[in-house]
Amino acid sequence: MPKYIVRHNAAERVMHWTLVVSFFILVLTGLGLYAHAFFGYLNFFGGAEQGMLFHRWASILFIISSVFLFLSNMKETLTFDADDAAWLKAGGGYLSREKKEIPQGKFNAGQKLFAVFAILATVVMAVSGFVIWFADSFGRALVQFSLMIHALFFIFFVMAAIVHIYLASIGNPGTSAGMLWGQVTSGWAKKHSSKWYKAMGGK
Ligand code: HEM
After folding, report:
1. What is the pLDDT of residues 113-122, one digit of tens each?
2. Is 81 left (phi over 0), alpha (psi -120 to 50) or beta?
3. In ligand 1, which atom is closest to the CA atom of 66?
4. pLDDT reported for residue 202
5. Helical segments of 78-199, H only
6. Is 26 in the pocket of ligand 1 (CB under 6 A)?
7. Is residue 55 within 8 Å of 12, Cβ to Cβ?
8. Hey, whose CA ends up nearest to atom 2 of ligand 1?
9. Closest by alpha carbon to 32, among 68, 58, 64, 69?
10. Is the terminal CB of the chain with fewer CB neighbours within 10 Å at N or C?
């Protein structure tokens, strides 16, 4: 078994980091546009008008990269077996001191749930954002409902992203290497994704 195993190809990595950059632009400009307390954030983007433009352009990049990432992992994400159920039942092992590795495929059950949440939240943000963007073409009630949903899912998305960022970096050392350089060590693969490790030729 080679020391490193390819985990994410170049297109997936470019799309993931496009997603991350556009997400942070959306969060900062979104907060600035939403509440007076965060208005200062718009200065990073050249003021309110420019901030609004950044928000719109970033939303397009975000939607494209989110859909790409989901489609590229779709088969794995939508496969759910008894090991995934066992992983969820054990809370991924994060809730106890007992060390018990449950065999997982390329992504563990928690990552699969995050991926499903991310694509659903992207669709909700995109549809509600579209209504807000072209507010003049829609009725007042629908625009107000969209504003509420957009703000609510913003909170859910940020909370989910915080958990994801922690687990994909300091929470599980070695994971980010796959998204940075494309490869993980075979030791990492054996520990975190043992079924995928075997499918890649590991013993
Ligand atoms: C600095 C911030 C971030 C880091 C370090 C990071 C890191 C990673 C890593 C290492 C993976 C691959 C996991 C693996 O190979 O097992 C991944 C996958 C993914 N990331 Fe991120 N990420 C960040 C921010 C985000 C944000 C903000 C979003 C969405 C809003 C996001 C969405 C995804 C999705 C959808 C996947 C695909 C599979 C999954 O884990 O569900 N990431 N990320």
Report:
1. 999 999 999 9
2. beta
3. 35
4. 86
5. 82-89, 109-133, 140-168, 175-180, 186-192, 194-199
6. no
7. no
8. 165
9. 58
10. C
